[in-house]
Amino acid sequence: MRPKKNPQKDLNKKSGMFFVIGLLLVLGMVYTALEWKTFDPIYNIDVAMNDIDPSIEEEAPIFQLEVTPPPKPPVLPTEIEIIEDDDPFEETEIIAIEVTPDTEVVDPTDFEVIEEPEEVKVNWITIEEVPVFPGCENEKDKRACFNDMMQKHIRKNFRYPEIAQEMNIQGRVNTTFMINNDGTIGTIKKRGPHDVLEKEAARILSKLPKMTPGKQRGSAVKVSFAIPITFKLQ
């Protein structure tokens, strides 16, 4: 029996080739779609080619600056006016000191010599009789009593500054103050980590009571005393 179709015309034999050709076409289209780039159009406008309206006329304004002439030199007066000064003029009388045979010899004993007392300052360690804090008059060891009363005074008047608490400022303030020869508190010197603590330490020492002054060789003298005040946050 003869086949109905010609074997040479059978397209199934070339299906693989058609598949490869179709695949290549699809890949080419995909590649072209991915690599396709578009750019914004560029408009080149030549400004120099613009025509200027000849009816427009521009003129630059002209400013005229006024030159200030130099000042004229002052004219001296032809006549000099004399003004009389009514203020009295005090002349210093100069006494000439010339030694002559008639010069009177002055006895040195006729002059009164005024001696100014020399101010003596003694520190706490070398003072013979230390200043007496009020309440320590009858104590045998007045140095120890003085130190105890100083500590009590500091604890009683101690006040931690609020601004120092907020800023977390703490540390030790070294203070030195003078007990005058009349028992009052003199110059207070302080040195610490911050001005706020130094001011508080000075305030505490300024509230010290009047004391019995210290004595050196039987005379009242100034005595310097140093004490540290510690500010510590809990």
Automatic annotation (TrEMBL):
Residues 145-234 form the TonB C-terminal domain. It is a single-pass membrane protein. One of its GO terms (molecular function) is energy transducer activity. InterPro entries: TonB, TonB-dependent_transducer, TonB/TolA_C, TonB_C. Its main location: membrane. Belongs to the TonB family. This is Protein TonB. It comes from Maribacter ulvicola.
